Amino acid sequence: MASPPVRPRRRADAERSIARIVSAARMTLGVHPDATIDDIAKAAGVGRMTLYGHFANRAELVEAALVEALRCGEEVLAAVDLTGNARQALTRLLHSSWTLVAESMALLEAAEGTLPAGRIRELHAAPSARMEELIRRGQADGDFRSDLPTSWLISVVHYVLHGAAAEIRAGRMPANPAGTVTATVQSILTVPAPDENGPA
């Protein structure tokens, strides 16, 4: 009796070619968010036909580069100790998050100019969920303010991270402002002091 057909596996050299192209896309778009297919193919050391054999268009390649960057980032963030006091845990998470945001800011800019906003939010679901869980825990423990919507506080944290990266790119902030970023976020989340005057 004949054996069922075996689905052919992608050749090892094709897998290596894809990995090389994605790596080149991350590197190139991480410096020049407007980099073209030709720029990326040149950085990868492959021809246009080879690149298009794996990626139908620039959008597919940009998404693959972003997915790879987020995968590597997730490995780093998943190793951060978030136990104990929420404020201290947030400081540890921000230091790791800040480094990743700074490294991928130009790549994110390329993605925002290419991919639908909903897709970008979907790809960032894991780091966003981690930040939300930590902030909610801090609110429940009384470490973080709860007078503002949690979704808004999370958005503000992301604005601070991305804003700092943009300021660095513009030359208006030092290259490693992790302390400034952390102090800013912690101040935003600090429980406000009671109104000494009381209700009107």
From TrEMBL:
The keyword Transcription regulation applies. Keywords: DNA-binding, Transcription, Transcription regulation. Residues 36-55 bind DNA. InterPro entries: Homeodomain-like_sf, HTH-type_TetR-like_transc_reg, HTH_TetR, Tet_transcr_reg_TetR-rel_C_sf. Gene3D superfamilies: Tetracycline Repressor, domain 2. The keyword ATP-binding does not apply. GO terms for molecular function: DNA-binding transcription factor activity; transcription cis-regulatory region binding. PROSITE patterns: HTH_TETR_2. It comes from the Bacteria. This is TetR family transcriptional regulator. It comes from Amycolatopsis antarctica.
